[in-house]
Structure formats: C-alpha cells, structure tokens
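Hello K.,

You asked for the raw outputs rather than the summary table, so here they are, unedited. I folded two proteins back to back in the same session to keep the settings identical. This is the first:
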Amino acid sequence: MTANASLKIDTERLSAARFAHAYSHAHCQQDSKHESCAWYHGSWQFLRLLDLVSTPDVHAMHFDTQLKKIAGDSSFKNILVSGSADSGLVKTIHEALMSRQAEITLTVIDICETPLKICEQYADKAGLQITTLKQNILEGLPEAAFDAIFTHSFMGYFDDAARQHLLRQWARSLRPGGRLITVQRIRENYADDVVRFNDLEINAFVARAKDLVRQSDFADFSEFDVVGMAKKFAERFRNFPVRSAEQLQSMFETAGFKLATFERQATHGAEGLTGPSVPNAAGFYMIAAERV
C-alpha cells in the first residue's frame, strides 16, 4: 500500500464491530477473578477490520473444501459451531449450505453471551435460524447430537489436559461418521506453558495498528480508541501451545477420531504483527476428523 493509499473499511463489518464493542461492555463473561472478557470481544472485530488477527477467512479454502463435501451429503443436517469470537464461521457455513438451508440446523456454543449475540445479529439480517448455547463446552453436550462441528483455532484456549477433555466432548456429541472441521497452529517445542506477546511484539502490534488506522478513513474510527484496544489486546492475550503435530494427532486418535485431513499450511501474516510469534516451521494444520 502506498503512502497516499487509503485503507478501505468494510461497512458491514464496521457496523458489527460497533455493536460488539457496545454490547461487550455490558454483557461479557466475568472469570473467577471477576474480570470481564470485554477487552477481547469488544476489540476483536476492530482488529479483524485491520487484518491484525487470524480469522476463518485466512483459511477459507480449507473450510470451503470441507463444506462442499457436506453440501452434497444429505446426512449432514445438524451442525455445531464451537467457540466463536464473531459471526465469521456462521456466515461461511450459511453461504456454503444456502441451497439446503431449510433442512440445516445450526447451533453456536460459547461461554460468553457477546459472541452469541453477534451471531444472532448476523442470522437475523441474513434470514437464518440459529440456536445459541451459553455454556462451557467442557460441561458436555448431548450424545450424538451433531453431524458436523466447525471451529477455528479453538484448542489453543485449553491446556493439554483440558484439550483432551475437549476432544472427547466433541467426539461424544458427534454421531458415528460425523466430522470435526478445524484449524490449529502448532508451536514446535514451545518452552513456556503459556503463549503471550513479548514486549517487542506488543510494540510491533501497536505500531502496526496505529499505522493502519492512519491509513484508513479516520472518520470510521474517530469515536473509538482502536490503538488503545490493540495495546490492551496484546498485553492481555493468553493461549496454550500445541507443541507438535504428533501430539495433536495422538490427541485426536485417543479421543476416537480418524484423521481424514491433517495438512500443514504456512503461518499467516508477519511474525509479531498478527499475534504472539515464535520461530515456527510448523504453521497451521488444516484438520478434518471423522468420528469413529
């Protein structure tokens, strides 16, 4: 982008970002320390507008490929979206399966009300019926209730023990032959127990946000401190590493899945500018797993 070029802002996404920011500060989930997740859900869609976070759009080819298989198979009717920072996966599934909309039942589960409301808002505008569940997924779901589960970079929010429990819950809630479609980053031999931005990455992330806001039509962001949101996001973000492809593959198989697709894709975006980074040759894995 040249110095004089202007960053074009998607007006539909900007409207969703405004809504999420307002809604999150009144309704976001509080953790055991009574801290709200509004810093995350209130900023996510602004950061998405600036391409500062990894979303399902980055891995659209993988989701499109898997959805084409489901679109041609009438046995796939009940679909779960597990964890949703925004309405991106709901939109992707809806558009891919629009010809079968009358027979598809779409459910979204998340521990926080804000992303569920964002998905409901999208569904209302799109003329789509969805069911939302405000629930910790580790508490379980009805057995064999779904034909397919879609999620994106969700397993990183659970440590190794909880991650194995998550996979068992997913497996339990799928019928035999049902599919789990996801994407997960591998951080090979990551030394620490928690993934976070280091000081240099925080500074780079904030500088990039500042530059992108400057390149955009300032009127789009004038009432929001997007740079401040980026700083708080980078300072507070925490994740748990998946340290090897072999570890992840074993977890799926132990939980009762057969891997149909397990393919590496290079890490998206400049290191340190789109998330906490480490020297990482493994990148993201595109995953489609069948319930045995």
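The second followed immediately with the same parameters:
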Amino acid sequence: MKFLGHSAHQVLIVFPVGLLMTAVIFDLIALGTGSNQFWTVSYWLMAAGVVGGLIAAVFGLLDWAHLPGHTRASRIGVLHGLGNVVVLLLFAGSWWMRAAPGQPPASNVLALSFIGAGLLFVTGWLGGELVARLSVGVDEEANVNASNSVRDHGVIEPTTSYRDAA
C-alpha cells in the first residue's frame, strides 16, 4: 500500500525500529549508571515501539500479499515478516515482564530485548534486501531524474506491481 507515492510500510518502520533500539540503548545506560530514570524511559519507548511495530506490520502484510507467489521476494518477505513477529514478541515480553517503569528488570527480561535487538538487525537486513535488491515497493519509473512521487497519484493506493518480481 502506498501513501503519497511511497510504500507506507517503509515509512512506518522507522518509528518502531528507532523506538525499540533506543529502548535497548537506555537499558544499557541504566545498567551502566544505575539510574532508575533510564529504566523508565526504556519502559515507555519499548511500549511505543511495540505498538508502532504492530501498525507497521499491517502495512507490511498488505505489501507482501501483493507479491507474486513462488518468488524469492515472497520467500524473503515471509522470513522478514515472521522474524519481525518474533522481534515484537520478544520486546513485548520484555516490556510485560518489567515490574514497573522505574524498576531495574531481571537479567532474563533484559535478555529478551537484547535478543530482540539482535534479531532486528537480521530482519532489517532482509527488509533492505527486499527493497534495495529485489525492488519491492520501488516505483517502476524510479531513476535519478524521476518526477515527484505524488505526481498523478491519489493519496492512498494499493501497491500492485513490483519490478523483476516474477
């Protein structure tokens, strides 16, 4: 699904990725400083990241549903999507198991988010493979002198064709 000529999924993923990775950074800062305020920030960043991830996932699923079956893009899309479901489950579990926003979480709770962050690097690479290598979500007329992306497009339109998908 496109919004103003761009894939909505590709636009939306920056929020959960940024929020979840920043939550991990704040966990590491909290571990290093012992300051409870960093646990509070991490707690709420993680909650927002999981919600944002769920929203982005809906648009990713819509994009994947328009890919031709039995293609490399479709197979990588499955790995990317299922991997990100696991990422969201790991972060949601870490968030859910935290006692309270300002309290230090147990080491197994931190491990969930750290594993989720590591897996997010892998699934992010898979998403990059879909866009940069397989041109999923890339406009068929894309080039270094292409016209403005909102040309002749409605505000929201379905993504139905992909270059080299077959």
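The longest helix spans residues 36-65.

Happy to rerun anything if the numbers look odd on your end.

Regards,
P.
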